[in-house]
Design goal:
With 153 residues, this protein is of the alpha/beta class. Helix content is 56%, strand content 14%. It contains six helices and five strands, in the order E-H-E-H-H-E-H-E-H-H-E. The chain has a five-stranded parallel beta sheet. The longest helix is centred in the middle third of the chain and has 27 residues. It is globular.
């Protein structure tokens, strides 16, 4: 079985994915970490070099690579992974999708702790982050709600 954890940045996909993979005795894949290892540069560096569109194309390619090369795993996707191309439908066909749903205040406090590692938040001051998260989450929610399961976190 392939499990795809989806949700906004800071919702706990990586933490939950590691716990699930341990409990299920399955391989854990953090899609962003996979991309970083494959490309030899950080997500921020990739964004700077090829922009969001280039990153999203690379992300889709890596998603397909992992799915083609492994029959079972728990994957923590990037927050935007379900929102581009037909990634959400693709993941739903490949296995089980689980949306980790957290409230805006929780997400904001978590992303502020690692703001410098989040390309979408670069250039925002701390006071602007909550508004950005709230608006961005609303835009992505239509994709997240296509998940086969929703877990409140």
């Amino acid at each position: 079985m392939k499990y795809f954890l989806i949700g906004y940045m800071g919702c706990g996909k990586s933490r939950m994915g590691r716990m699930m993979s341990h409990d299920l005795k399955m391989m854990f894949v953090d899609l962003d970490d996979y991309i970083v290892r494959r490309e030899g540069r950080s997500v921020s560096e990739i964004f700077a070099a090829v922009g969001e569109e280039g990153f999203r194309q690379l992300e889709r390619c890596c998603l397909e690579e992992v799915c083609a090369s492994h029959t079972s795993f728990v994957m923590a996707t990037g927050g935007g992974t379900p929102c581009f191309f037909d990634n959400m439908d693709y993941m739903n066909r490949q296995g089980k999708t689980i949306f980790l749903d957290a409230d805006v205040d929780t997400l904001t406090s978590r992303v502020l702790r690692a703001k410098d590692k989040r390309p979408l938040l670069s250039g925002l001051d701390d006071g602007e982050v909550r508004d950005f998260v709230e608006q961005h989450l609303k835009k992505r929610m239509e994709y997240y709600l296509k998940a086969q399961e929703i877990w409140e976190v």
